[in-house]
Design a protein that fits this description.
Oligomer: single chain
Strand content: under 5%
Distance between the termini: 22 Å
Helix content: over 70%
Largest sheet: none
Structural class: mainly alpha
Shape: elongated
Order of helices and strands: HHHHHHH
């Protein structure tokens, strides 16, 4: 058995994974939390990116960022936590699904892109040039909608 296979097998054998597999209501709660978290994330990232692209010019960029960025961060944190719990249930199977790997890559690029943008221009992006904001918004939309689509396709992959 290769090291990663052993790790995934060990994860599936944890008490937490067994509890998730053994309780329809606990699993359903984690699954519902994941869906809710994705709703928070996508529901805040899309309007935020639309504002960066120039929509709703009557509302300051700073006001939109101040409201939606914490909602997106909360959604991301909940999605990562609940998604990790869902992964535990069938880690060996899920690890072989290409859509999961693409989803994780898109999430990584989306998060790193945002961190780099905020590091360069501050949380409120006050001094960010328009071209940089547009480029980030397009990349972000591709990453997050792509991650959403890949996540849904995981259910249709495999057997």
């Amino acid at each position: 058995m290769r090291p990663l296979e052993a790790l995934f097998s060990a994860l599936e054998g944890t008490e937490l994974a067994q509890t998730l597999r053994g309780s329809r209501w606990v699993y359903a709660g984690v699954n519902a939390t994941h869906i809710f978290a994705i709703g928070l994330l996508i529901g805040s990232v899309v309007p935020l990116n639309l504002r960066l692209l120039g929509a709703w010019r009557g509302i300051s960029r700073e006001a939109v960022v101040r409201v939606l960025a914490p909602v997106a961060a909360t959604g991301l944190a909940l999605a990562l936590l609940s998604g990790s719990l869902l992964f535990l249930v069938r880690a060996s199977e899920y690890s072989g699904i290409g859509f999961l790997r693409v989803k994780l890559a898109l999430i990584t690029v989306g998060v790193l892109s945002t961190l780099v943008l905020c590091r360069s221009h501050g949380f409120l992006l006050k001094d960010a040039p328009r071209a940089r904001l547009v480029g980030h918004a397009v990349l972000s939309m591709v990453c997050w909608t792509g991650a959403l689509i890949c996540g849904r396709l995981i259910a249709f992959a495999g057997d």
